[in-house]
């Protein structure tokens, strides 16, 4: 670390990263380059530029990554129907590899020796950032202040900020009710008022969704068009990936869709409680399931469902750039070649319900499945099919009887 001269800091402009910026300058003597990613978090990012300039930063990067985020990270993940522990749509997890990628690119561009993040030593993000850093540049040096310094309480952080003239937002002076991470896919709220998992989260925690009780009494019907597993149109109007997710977020938020109270298992071993809002993502997941129902073969669909938990865990744990994730992605993407068509959904008081689906590549045959007379399926054939599949069960039962074993 003594060879480090220049560092690229993932910088939000908030209290923690502002203190990290000063700490890198004053305590370590490094030249700091700041990088702020616009992932659709819904905040004005220019204050981050002004704060960095006020602390003497000469090289400041504020990059709009919204389209890349949805197109190259969110959409590939949704082709897999990825859910961590059966529920979590991985909104924070999927953003970290893109932030890391751009941070490494900037480090190479400006000739920096190291990168720095503001993740704590208790959470998942430190792992996600650093696994991505090392996958993209094995020789990069990484600085994780929360694992080095002694500013391990909010009181100490505020005192350090006051001593060094760092701006502190008025709502940071007391005990902040909770911490928030946000991007175009979701919001994540953790800590403080949410730490007791037996207590219902207060309504003020939710930022993007109305409560289902206060959602409109009349349902909203929408149609989502898909090509190769990706959503490309909404109500017959074409949108880019980021535009599509923005539209679905608005529709889902108004109808109280996408709320989740989750007690999850962190990669580092502890359990944590998170309150998530993924309004557009919840709609997109349901719609994608709907178009797969009519276009995917049974074997492919069931294999995808078997692979999905592993795929989701890889993303959650920070292995986006691993060969195993890329192998799984190749299989998933192959399955999506004919996943095209339209899904109709009803949005109503917290629920997104499929009410129709159609595709030029449909595998659904009404002629085969009908309860009326047909000329394509001989029902008598089912007897042989059942007997063949029952053969091993019959042999097992015969063996057990001969052995005097009671069932």
Distance between the termini: 68 Å
Average pLDDT confidence is 93
Number of helical runs? Answer: 12
Strands, total number: 14
Tell me the name of the CATH homologous superfamily of the largest domain.
HUPs
Q: How many discrete structural domains?
A: 3
CATH architecture of the largest domain: 3-Layer(aba) Sandwich
- Give a quick account of the main beta sheet: strands, pairing sense, barrel closure: 5 strands, parallel
Shape by Cα distribution: elongated
Strand content: 15-25%
CATH fold descriptor of the largest domain: Rossmann fold
| Major beta sheet, strand line-up | 3-2-1-4-5
Evaluate the radius of gyration. Answer: 26 Å
Could you say which structural class the secondary elements and strand pairing correspond to?
A: alpha/beta
Ranges where pLDDT stays below 50 over 5 or more residues in a row are: none
Oligomer: single chain
Explain what this protein looks like in three dimensions:
The chain is α/β, with parallel strands linked by helices. It has 3 domains: 6-66 and 94-176, Rossmann fold (3-Layer(aba) Sandwich), CATH 3.40.50; 180-296 and 338-358, Argininosuccinate synthetase, chain A, domain 2, CATH 3.90.1260.10; 366-402. 40% of the residues lie in helices and 19% in strands. It contains 12 helices and 14 strands. It has helices at residues 15-26, 46-54, 66-79, 96-110, 125-136, 154-163, 241-254, 279-295, 298-317, 323-335, 366-369, 381-402, and strands spanning 6-10, 31-38, 60-64, 114-116, 141-143, 179-182, 187-190, 220-227, 230-234, 237-238, 259-265, 271-277, 341-348, 351-358. It has a 5-stranded parallel beta sheet with strand order 3-2-1-4-5, with helices on both faces. A 5-stranded antiparallel beta sheet has the order 10-9-8-13-14. A 4-stranded antiparallel beta sheet has the order 6-7-12-11, with no helix packed on it. β2 (31-38), α2 (46-54) and β3 form a beta-alpha-beta unit. α4 packs across α5, α7 packs across α8 and α9 packs antiparallel against α10 (323-335). The model has no long low-confidence stretch (mean pLDDT 93).
């Amino acid at each position: 670390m003594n060879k480090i001269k220049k560092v690229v800091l993932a910088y939000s402009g908030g209290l923690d990263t502002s203190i990290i910026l000063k700490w890198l300058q004053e305590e370590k003597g490094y030249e700091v380059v700041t990088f702020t990613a616009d992932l659709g978090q819904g905040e004005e990012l220019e204050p981050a530029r002004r704060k960095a300039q006020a602390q003497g930063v000469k090289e400041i990067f504020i990059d709009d990554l919204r389209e890349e985020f949805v197109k190259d990270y969110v959409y590939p993940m949704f082709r897999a129907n990825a859910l961590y522990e059966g529920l979590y749509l991985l909104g924070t997890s999927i953003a970290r590899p893109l932030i890391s990628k751009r941070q490494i690119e900037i480090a190479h561009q400006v000739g920096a020796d190291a990168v720095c993040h503001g993740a704590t030593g208790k959470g998942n993000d430190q792992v996600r950032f650093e696994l991505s850093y090392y996958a993209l540049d094995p020789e990069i040096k990484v600085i994780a202040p929360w694992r080095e310094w002694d500013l391990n309480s909010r009181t100490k952080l505020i005192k350090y900020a006051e001593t060094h003239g760092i701006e502190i937002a008025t709502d940071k002076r007391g005990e902040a009710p909770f911490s928030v991470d946000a991007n175009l896919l979701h919001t994540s709220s953790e800590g403080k008022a949410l730490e007791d998992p037996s207590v219902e989260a207060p309504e003020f925690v939710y930022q993007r969704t109305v409560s289902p009780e206060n959602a409109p009494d009349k349902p909203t019907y929408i149609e989502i068009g898909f090509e190769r597993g990706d959503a490309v149109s909404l109500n017959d109007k074409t949108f880019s990936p980021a535009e599509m997710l923005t539209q679905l977020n608005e529709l889902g938020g108004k109808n109280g869709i996408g709320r989740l109270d989750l007690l999850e298992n962190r990669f580092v071993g502890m359990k944590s409680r998170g309150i998530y809002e993924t309004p557009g993502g919840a709609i997109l997941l349901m719609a994608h399931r709907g178009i797969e129902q009519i276009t995917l073969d049974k074997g492919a669909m069931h294999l995808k469902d078997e692979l999905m938990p592993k795929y989701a865990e890889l993303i959650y744990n920070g292995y986006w750039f691993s060969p195993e994730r890329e192998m799984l992605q190749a299989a998933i993407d192959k399955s999506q070649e004919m996943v095209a068509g339209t899904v109709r959904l009803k949005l109503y008081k917290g629920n997104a319900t499929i009410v129709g689906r159609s595709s030029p590549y449909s595998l659904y045959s009404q002629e085969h499945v009908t309860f009326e007379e047909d000329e394509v399926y001989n029902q008598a054939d089912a007897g042989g099919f059942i007997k063949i599949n029952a053969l091993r069960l019959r042999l097992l039962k015969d063996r057990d009887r001969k052995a005097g074993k009671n069932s």
